[in-house]
C-alpha cells in the first residue's frame, strides 16, 4: 500500500510502498553523510522510489540528481515524487540495469555517486518474498563489484562515491573499490549505543585518491537512556538546522 510522508514539516515528500523499497535508517544516515555544496552533479545507483535523492535535495537544493533504477514501477513512483515536489528539473531517473551503465550515462559526468546497495552475497540468509525486496537485500541482481564498477565509470577524476554497507563486508568493499580505482578515504561505523558492536558503516571513496583512510568516531543512534542522539535527529530532519 502506497502513502506519502514529508521528510520534515514543510519539507519534501517521499512515497512509501512496502512491496518495493522500505525506507530505513540506513538510507537516512547515508543521506546525511556526503559533503554537499551547490552545483554538484549526483548519481544515485539503485535509486528505488527516489528517497535518497530527496534526502540530498532536502539538505542542498542546488543539486542535480540522476537516479538509475532497474524496476519500471519504482521509476514511475520516483518520477511522481519529483513532480509532486516540483523537482523535475533537478531530480530525474533513468530506467535500466547499472551493470549496463555505459549505455545509460556518460563517463565522468558526475561529482558524487551515492548508493544503498544490497548487503548480502547471493544465496545467504532468508530472502524476502517480492523480487524488489530480494534485490534490495541480496546480490541477486548485481554484486558489490558491479556497483563499484558503475560508480567508477560515472565519476569524474577526484569525484566521490558514498555508500552504506555492513561492517562484515568492509574487506570485500575496500577490495572492490580499489580494483576500480576508487580509494577509500572516510569511514564511519554506526552502532546502536556507545560500546556496542557496529551494525552499519558509511564509507566515502575518491576516484584517483591517494591512499589514506580517515576513521571518524562512531555514530551512535541512541544515548545511554535510549533516546535518539542529536546526529540521528539530524539525519531525520528533527532539528531546526536540517529543516531549511
Continuous helix count: 7
Note the beta-strand portion: 25-35%
Low-pLDDT residue intervals, each spanning 5 or more residues: none
Number of strands: 11
Using the alpha-carbon principal axes, give the shape: globular
- The N- and C-terminal alpha carbons lie at a distance of 30 Å
Work out the helicity level.
25-40%
Mean pLDDT: 92
Structural class: alpha/beta
Element pattern in H and E: EEHEHEHEEHHEHEEEEH
Major sheet details: 9 strands, mixed
Whole-angstrom Rg: 17 Å
Provide a compact summary of the structure.
Helices cover 26% and strands 27% of the residues.
Question: Any overview of this molecule?
Answer:
- It is a single chain.
- This protein is an alpha/beta fold.
- It contains seven helices and eleven strands.
- Strands 3, 4, 5, 6, 7, 8, 9, 10 and 11 form a nine-stranded mixed β-sheet that branches. A two-stranded antiparallel sheet has the order 1-2.
- The radius of gyration is 17 Å and the shape is globular.
- 40% of the residues are buried.
